[in-house]
Each structure stands twice: as structure tokens, then as C-alpha cells.
Amino acid sequence: MLTREEDVDAHALRRQGWTISAIARHLGRDRKTIRAYLNGERTAGQRRQAPDAFVPFLPYCRQRLADDPHLWASTLFDEVVGLGYEGAYSTFTRALRRYRVRPHCEPCHASTGRNVAVIAHPPGEEIQFDWLELPDPPEGWRVGEHAHLLVGALAHSGRWRAVLTESEDFPHLVQALDDVVRKLGGTARRWRFDRMATVCYPSSGQVTAAFAAVAKYYGVGVDICPPRRGNRKGVVEKANHSAAQRWWRPVPDGLAVVQAQSGVDKLSLRMDDRRRRIDGAVTTVGELAVAEPLLDIPVRPFPAELEVERTVSPQSLVAFDGNFYSVPPGLAGVTVKVLHRLGEDDLRIVTAGRAVVACHRRAPRGAGQTVRDDGHVIALERAVLSSFSDRAPCKTKVRKPPSAAALAEAERLREGPATGSSAERVVIDLTHYAAVADRLRSVPPPPKQEESPECVRHRCR
């Protein structure tokens, strides 16, 4: 790069008749550089810009943000990194602003102007829990209109973990709570909830007797947020926002529940790398979480009983928690219930009348195993084989001439009309019409009436 002084000297010497080689030797520069500045291809004081690594990904980013203007930049950054982008996140967001990739949304720029208070959260003091209802789940999840994600966040460090469940009822809540605290590595001294009906009575905020037993089992206190005060558990609300935008929004169709759970686990681990500044020292969320004094949790979860409905497949299998369990043959298409008490190693499959039809040892969740009972396998094989016939197959290379009945039918067809029509010949008797014609010939014609003078004058006109 030439300085402005060198650029001025180069142009002055060029006007004086110096050659480019002489100017290059005088200034100690390359001839191609001097030629580029003299021809106006380069500007003094400005370095040549390196090729922008964002440009190849610009059409993709424009299309994604045109389809979804509220897509998070961090979510889009994760996608382009998977496509081969090697720049940093700050470079990526700077390029989004420079090229004005994101469409403008006026309602999103409105400011509420509310005052915000900072709530102190001592280490190991509180875990905030909240249900995140995710609309339009992929087909095959069997969860209805919404998928259900229980998110738990340590209020001090901000570390969060989440678990997908089929429902928000009490047994699934207990199972998800136990999974979340185990993923966090322990439990805080207090749990905070909003006014969900499975934890407290929404009208009064008093904890229900069933959930009080759960809190005693884990040795924690329970705090209920005041009504219409979502900011009181802002840590978990922010985690909900991250999970919805960075994980759920780009979830493709056809994704299995196990793969979706793996995706949210990877996101929560990645979020542990967020930077925090505590008393002037720079740290991360993961380092703060490791330093939190968490309480130990029981070896087994609280013994709540899960009860879910399933439909038996044609192979006499029932799906539950990412595995398949066998039932006796003859129940294909029948709705049964799977009963499992948390902490136990077995599960039961019962009919609508609560009759137990199968009992199996529970496989690890999401393992994709098929657990079959030997008696069910033998009975299913017998049922399938009994539907087959051991009679010899029909022979095809034989001589079978037309039978007598077939020959008689063929003869009847030959005696039909020559045109080959199957309709019978219609015979009409014309004797009656001939008699009527004879009578008409013998009847004299009617007498001719005389016309009046008025009719004659009218005809002449």
C-alpha cells in the first residue's frame, strides 16, 4: 500500500516523464503496485480488502431471513457453520448488518420502557422450572398439538437443562424433574415454579399434597411465583427463549423424539460457554455452575406411576420411551395402557379393563430395543402359521376342455341375431293398423262449408 505522500510523488514523477520502472526503483515499490495507483485502480491510504468469506453464504442467509424474519442470528450462525462458514460470530453478525440481510419489522422495535430490578441469586440457592409448549411437533411423536419441554435453570450461574415429555401431568412432571436435576449434577435448596396446577392450587398458590411429598423426597423447598410476574423467574424464561429459537425453530419434519432430545442437550451444553463477568473477572456459565454447592439427589426418582395409552402394532408390539415391548397375539389395533412406576425396573401393559397382558423389564430410555417375551414369540408364530394352508398349490399345466354347460351356453349364443346383439328380436303385429286403414278408406269426406262474403273479402286482401 502506498502512502498519500508516495502517491503524490508517483503522479508528479510520471508527469515529468519518468517511467514506471524508474518510479518503482525511486520509491522502493513493485512496478505492478505503481501502475495500479497511477491507473486509479487503487486508492492511497486504503488497503486492498481480502475476499469476504460471508459472500458465498449471503443468498442462503437472505432466503432464511426472508422465510423467517425473526430467526435468531445465533441459530443462523449455527446453520452456516455446518455449511462450511469459518468466520467468527461477531464477523458474521457484522456482515448481516453491513449487507442489511434481515428485513425490518416495526413492531419488534417498540420499547416497553419498563423498569427492571436485579434480583440476587446466591450460588446453589434456587432452580427455576417452567414448561415450554412447542407448537406443531413432527408427525409420529403422538403428543397432540404441542410438544412439552420441561426446562430447569440454575438461577445463579444460568446453566439450564431440558427434557421432552409426552404430557404435563403429574407423573411426567416428576419424571422430567428428576431427569433435569440429574443432568444439572444435583439440586439447589429451593425449586421455583409458576402457578402450574400439578404443583400448586392456581387460585391460592398453596402447594398440593402430592407435590409436597415430592419436595420432601428430594429435600428441597418450593417457591411459587406471584400471579402475572413472569420476570420473577427470568433465568428460565430466557432459557425457554433460547431453546425455542435456537433448537425448536429449525427442527425438521420426520425427526425422532430421541434425536430431538439429543439436539436440545447439545444446545444446553453449548450454552455453558457463555461468558459472564463477576466482580470484574471474566468467567463462563459452566465454570460458575461447577462452583455452585448443589445438594445430592436420591438414587431413584420419586415413585410416581406413569400411565400412557398405546395402540398395538400388527407385529404385536407396543412403543414406549423409544423402545418396543411385545404383547400376546390377537391384540393388533387394540388400545392398551403402559404402566411404569418411576424407579422400578419393570413395566406392565394392561387392557382398558386393567387386565395385565404383559410384563417386561424396562429397557433404557431411547435405546431403540425390542423386548419380546418367549411365550409371545411362540404364540405369534403359531398364529401366523395357522393362517397359512398346507394344501398343494393349484396346477396350471393341465387340460380342461369346456364343460357341457359352457357348450350349451355357446350354442345359445350362436342361435342369436346375426348382428351379434344380445337383445331379443322385437315382433310387431300390423293387423290392427291394416284394419284401421281400411275403415278410413271407406268413410266419406266431410261436407264442404260455404264461405261468407266477409271471409272472401278478407282472403282477397
UniProtKB/TrEMBL annotation:
Region span, Disordered: 439-461
Compositionally skewed regions (Basic and acidic residues) per UniProt: 448-461
Protein name per the record: IS21 family transposase
Residue span(s) of domain Integrase catalytic: 119-245
Taxonomic lineage from the root: Bacteria, Bacillati, Actinomycetota, Actinomycetes, Kitasatosporales
Cross-referenced InterPro entries: Integrase_cat-core (IPR001584), IstA-like_C (IPR054353), RNaseH-like_sf (IPR012337)
